[in-house]
Amino acid sequence: MRMVAYQRYVELSQSTDSEERGQAAHLAALAYLDHRGPADEQAALYAALVNFLDDASVRVRAALAYGLLHSDRAPRPIMLSLAQDAPVISRAVVQYSPVLLDADLMGIIRSGDPDMLAVMTVRSRLSLRVALALLRIGSADICIRVLARPDLEFPEDDLMALAEQWGEDAKVRGALFRRKDLPGLARLYLVERVREALGGMRIVKGSIQPRRLQRLLRDAGDAAAATIGEREAGKGRARYVASMAEADQINSRLMLHALVHGQVLFFADCLTHLSETSRAKVFTLLDSGSRAALNAVFSRCGFSPAVRNLLARLVFHARNADLADDLAARHFVVSLLIEELITEHDGDIPPALDEAFAYLNEQNIALARAAARGVMPAFASEAPDVQMVPNLQHDTPLALPAA
Questions:
Q1: Dihedral angle at the C-alpha atoms of 187, 192, 194, 200, nearest 10 degrees?
Q2: What is residue 401's DSSP assignment?
Q3: Is-contact 81 108, C-beta < 8 A?
Q4: What CA–CA distance (Å, rounded) separates 283 from 268?
Q5: From CA 78, how far away is CA 64, in angstroms rounded?
Q6: Dist CA 14 CA 101 (whole Å)
Q7: At what angle are helices 305-318 and 252-260 packed, to 10 degrees?
Q8: Is the dihedral angle over the CA atoms 269, 270, 276, 280 positive or is it negative?
Q9: Residue 262: which of 292, 234, 290, 221 has the closest Cα?
Q10: DSSP string of 187-244?
Q11: Is 70 exceeded by the pLDDT of residue 387?
């Protein structure tokens, strides 16, 4: 301010030209923030700032706001007044001013102005208290904006409540899925909503035969449940398996899927919960337990004798294969299990194994398809000149029967 004489500042502040008054307001703001002199001089500068709040021109008040906007030394009363000014001013203050407290922001949230709420979500710092208040407003747009902030970590119960509230909204579902802190139960709940949505879409129902669609969606559900469960188990979260068991969602098919795909942590957590056996003992049994010991644990889980025998057989095969990462090993183990079951029961699979046997057949086909991709191109690149079919000479042309 001293570089611009006070008399010149008074002339600008009293000008009839709003642009000149705006220059004066901006100068006063900068002078106040940079002031290190006597207290009476600072008081005079503060009074000058207050006077500009009553200026009739939005341009002047905006110049005042932008001069103070990013400073943590800006006077709170003035910033609060500007936060209630014209939209172009108030939105900027709410978005950028660091002097606004959570209590100030909560008051603005209660006002319910959607534009003000939207800019609040992009403040450089947003406390958990304010973020949760924004999430509870019930606006999908605000919810997506807040969930997109990686600097915030929300309580599991709040994220679960959001999943239940917005499970039918595809955009909010996507924002929730992108959250790394989304608990497994909420993630599984949203997967179920996606599965229902896909199953109900006309384009999907019209493109895939109903039984095949049902099988695809069921397999996708199993894969999601086991994959999420593996991650939750890796983080030591037992609540996921406990909730699945309470909802009666742990069955022989899901257990087979987890073991076939090498998701041993989830498999072990299911056994731990269902059998009420310690986690350490379950891992010891899976690693080196006898068939009788494994059958005893599976019996405590409530599986039928036929399923217990199948699971024990699969555990023994899994000890010698990398089912988590080796696709060919999965295919080999599943094929071997199928052959063993057919041989053992002389082709007459008992009813108790119908569901498990059907699952193994489905997996065998899916794994065979996955393992077969790229085999022939790789072989052809290694032997590009080898003839696939020898030259056949026929006196009589071959003909296919009419369709």
A1: -170
A2: P
A3: no
A4: 7
A5: 10
A6: 34
A7: 10
A8: negative
A9: 234
A10: HHHHHHHHHHHHHH-HHHHTTS-HHHHHHHHHHHHHHHHHHHHHHHHHTT-THHHHHH
A11: no
Give the pLDDT score at 401.
65
Instruction: Give residue-wise pLDDT tens across range 77-114.
Output: 999 999 999 999 999 999 999 999 999 999 999 988 88
Q: What is the pLDDT of residues 9-57, one digit of tens each?
A: 788 888 899 998 999 999 889 989 988 888 888 898 899 899 999 999 9
Helix (H, G, I), strand (E, B) or coil at 190: helix
How does pLDDT run across 259-317, given as a tens digit for each residue? Answer: 999 999 999 999 999 999 999 999 999 999 999 999 999 999 999 998 999 999 999 98
- Assigned token pair, 253: 């098919």
Residues in the chain, overall count: 403
Helix, strand, coil percent content, the chain, rounded in steps of 5? 70, 0, 30
User: Residue written as tokens 């009476």?
Assistant: 40
Tens of pLDDT, residue by residue over 296-308, are 999 999 999 989 9
Q: How far apart are CA 28 and CA 2, in angstroms?
A: 11
334 is written with which tokens? 């599943």
- What is the spatial distance between Cα 225 and Cα 267, in angstroms, rounded to a whole number? 11
User: Do 174 and 199 touch, CB atoms closer than 8 A?
Assistant: no
d(CA 251, CA 206): 30
37 vs 200: CA distance, rounded Å: 72
What are the structure tokens assigned to 308, written together? 């217990």
Instruction: Tell me the C-alpha distance between 11 and 2, whole Å.
Output: 15
**Domain locations in the chain as residue ranges:** 1-100, 246-372
Q: What are phi and psi of 170, to 5 degrees?
A: -60, -40
Query: How distant, in Å, are the alpha carbons of 43, 46, 67 from that of 38?
Result: 9, 13, 21
